[in-house]
Amino acid sequence: MSGLVAEQAKAESVKALGLYVHVPFCASTCDFCAFYQEQPTATTVKGFLTDIGREAKLVRWARPIETIFWGGGTPGLLAPADLAVLGETMREICGGPVREWSVELAPASVTEARLAALRAAGVTRISLGVQSFRPELLDALGRQHTREQVFRAYERIRAAGFESVNLDLMFALPGQDESAWLEDLRQAVALQPDHLSTYCLTFEEDTKLWVKLSKGAVKLDPVRERELYERTWEFLGTAGFAQYEVSNFARPGHACQHNVNTWHMHEWVGLGPSAASQHDGLRGANIADLAKWSERIGRGERATEDRVSLTPELLAEDALIFGLRMNAGVDTGPWRARAPAANWGEVDALLARMDAEGLAIRSETRVRLTDRGRLVADAVGVEVMNAFASHAVGAS
Asked: Locate the Radical SAM core domain: which residues (predicted)?
């Protein structure tokens, strides 16, 4: 087991608490994006910053926060002074430094003043949404930045001195062949980031790309997706990036701890409209509406909807689904003890079949996917879900 994967397995037993803040502001909506967002105004931004602090006071913080993640939307769309205000709110919540503090930025929004505000706040990790270095592919995605802006943004981020820098890339894009994708990977590696996230394009409902798919303007190509997955893993492994999750690669010490903790089914609190939480025995997501979220917070209420009780069986199921996406896999032993009522017989039968088919490797209580298995990780997740669900059906 590589050092990065061993570190990931060690984190499995640590009961970490994370904080996620959804900053819902975007200048425009990318064709592939299904996340909740609004175009900002001075009034809505000011209200958002105030209400984040108010929402935090409604949470029962049982232990210190270890990781923070600002996502969106585009957190970097906030002005430097507003980033400083949000950063001060984070420090008040945490009461001190955190192990890791990540912020997503779009290349067009990266300025020295914004980066200075983030560094002063205590941010340790920047994730830059590159997606591609090719102008025609950026246009096809509806991205509002240029190749030149990517390079300029990266230089500024490096000069600012953040501990970790991640680049987000996407493949299987309309009009993208293997040579174009490999050239994007070469360009990304040449910049020498600490971490790379490579996501296969997905078609989410209520997006412009979904409309194009439904009209036949673009088509799915599972064979090409598989080939690009395999070439990605081979190329980045040779370049010195260790894969620790289906879509994530890092140099030693630079894995995203916030995401690893989430995949291990530890706890996190989500603040902001549409932000999800898994905390204090419940799972749910805030209402995806800035005005309604603000109204609820103003009444002294959390805006969380569709709350689900975090039973041991539900957590065990999700720990296997997300744990199997990681190269270290998942240790089923602690979950068997924690959730003895789950249908482990059905789960064991599934894992045995996957082992026999070369999709997984079992070692005592730990199970992990092979490369073949990771290529079908989504389908594996569905089968795990069905195995756990068979218990509920049988018990009804």
From this structure: 11-245
Domains in the chain: how many in total?
2
Q: Is residue 228 assigned to a domain? A: yes
Which residue among 262, 280, 298 closes a domain? 262
CATH at residue 380: 1.10.10.920
- Full 3-state SS string of the chain: CCHHHHHHHHHHHCCCEEEEEEECECCCCCCCCCCCCECCCHHHHHHHHHHHHHHHCCCCCCCCCCEEEEEECCHHHCCHHHHHHHHHHHHHHHCCCCCEEEEEECHHHCCHHHHHHHHHHCCCEEEEEEECCCHHHHHHHCCCCCHHHHHHHHHHHHHHCCCEEEEEEEECCCCCCHHHHHHHHHHHHHCCCCEEEEEECCCCCCCHHHHHHHCCCCCCCHHHHHHHHHHHHHHHHHCCCEEEECCEEECCCCCCHHHHHHHCCCEEEEECCCCEEEECCEEEEECCCHHHHHHHHHCCCCCEEEEEECCHHHHHHHHHHHHCCECCCEEHHHHHHHCCCCCHHHHHHHHHHHHHCCCEEEECCEEEECHHHHHCHHHHHHHHHHHHHHHHHHHC
386 and 243 co-located in one domain: no
Is residue 292 in a domain? Answer: no
Q: Which domain range does residue 369 map to?
A: 312-395
State what percent of residues in the chain have pLDDT above 90. 72
> Which of the four pLDDT bands, split at 50, 70 and 90, describes residue 305?
confident
For residues 10 and 114, state if they share a domain: yes
pLDDT tens digits, 260-269:
999 999 999 9
245 with 96, same domain: the answer is yes
Tell me the per-residue pLDDT of 327-358, one tens digit each, with 9 for 90 and over.
999 999 999 999 999 999 999 999 999 999 99
Per-residue pLDDT tens for 119-176? 999 999 999 999 899 888 777 776 667 889 999 999 999 999 999 999 999 898 887 8
The per-residue pLDDT for 221 is 65
CATH number at residue 83: 3.80.30.20
